[in-house]
Structure prediction request, 511 residues.
Amino acid sequence: MRRALVSVSDKSGVVDFCKSLVKNGYEIISTGGTYKMLVDSGVGAIEIDEVTKFPECFEGRVKTLNPFVHGGILHRRDKQSHLDQAKELGVEAIDLVCVNLYPFKETIQKTDDFEEIIENIDIGGPAMVRSAAKNFDSVMIITDVDDYAKVIDAIENEKNTLEFRRSLMIRAYEHTAAYDSMIANYMNERFNGGFGAKQFIVGEKVMDTRYGENPHQKGALYEFDKHYSENFKTLKGEASFNNLNDLSGAVKIASAFGDDNAVCITKHGNPCGFAIRDNLLDAYVEALKCDPVSAFGGVVAVNGVVTKELALKMNEIFLEVIIAGRITPEAQEVFASKKRIKLFEMQSDKLILANDTKDFKHIDGGFVYQDADRVGEDEVKNAKLMSQREATLGEKKDMEIAYKVASLTKSNCVVYVKNSAMVAVGMGMTSRVDASQCALKKAKEMGLDVEGAALASEAFFPFRDSIDAAAAAGVKSVIEPGGSIRDDEIIEAANEFGMSLYFSEVRHFLH
Prediction:
């Protein structure tokens, strides 16, 4: 008779799994709460101390750390010397190990009690997982409840091949590596400000992308905390590597204003249109006005529901990607004939942000890691008035929009907003005055009136030339971090032109 050792924290599906194992000739060995649940459910099981010949001790800290357990898992079945020694020591083979680990993540989410947190660090579980994975030539290791059906199918239909066990082995080592990484990151967050000697970034694979940024590169999407698998739904097409990058930028901007009816259009990760209106149709129409040329083949993020009416308007030009809280079936029908368009939704009335607390970027030879940047809730509201003229309520709303969009746009950048719609943007420039002038030139080409707009910059203006250019275009209010050695010149220029000028005192570079 083959033997299976089953010891799980997540007990969903374990009773049926063990019943199937028994039906297929396995004897079940189990521990603690798992053993009790199995017996109470009518599954014949052997308690672990009958195998170890030693009682569980130290309040359950030591249960399976025993040669009868690890010897049963680890001895090689293809070596006669191992088989002889197992017989000599009275070690019986364990052919299947089913373990999932103490709920460390759930514990740190619900409590700050360090003693409770320490007790939810699994020791015996990872040891058994690693032992079984090491001996995958003979032993099956199961760490995921989603694999139960697949394992039973393999047992019953002669699919328990070396390749199958190897796939389980890889999943097992991924499981223990992610578990240990989570513990190390937590301890560094608690005691070293989140920046310890090592930093672990662990993501769960969602899907392969068709290729990376270019066809000769491989690519895939990995997620944190099931953000994509739980929220992101493909309705039409396939998200490419580049689409996912662009989507992320568009969603961050469109969802930066709470429940407002916001629409953001991006191209290559940067906004080329943005507006907030009483309804999403008007928001899209206004957003498109900013730069309809760049919007061609762009990505549109809609902070709400795409209806048939909105879809008909969007369908007038070629858009590559639309992502929204939801896209109604009637709206999907509108796009059905467009072969190249890709549709995604978040299965909610609004877009959903993961709100990651950390951010990182690959550089040659490593990566840089930082706290995630975001505009504070009252950052614009509490900005300091530096000029003689105070902004009106409408101008303050425009400043807030311009400032938040600027914080999510590649530096150097400036954003001009009028009546809650972006009317000009300059981004990714080596000079801030170039960004200002480029934005105004584009607005003029598009026939957009910047008179009365609010101007935001994500970093300070080093010279007054950007203010001079803005004044010539009719800008009435400016918000920037301040902090330049020439701040006095900037303030003087604002007063000279009768502008309102605010310093937020917080820089928001995005590189």
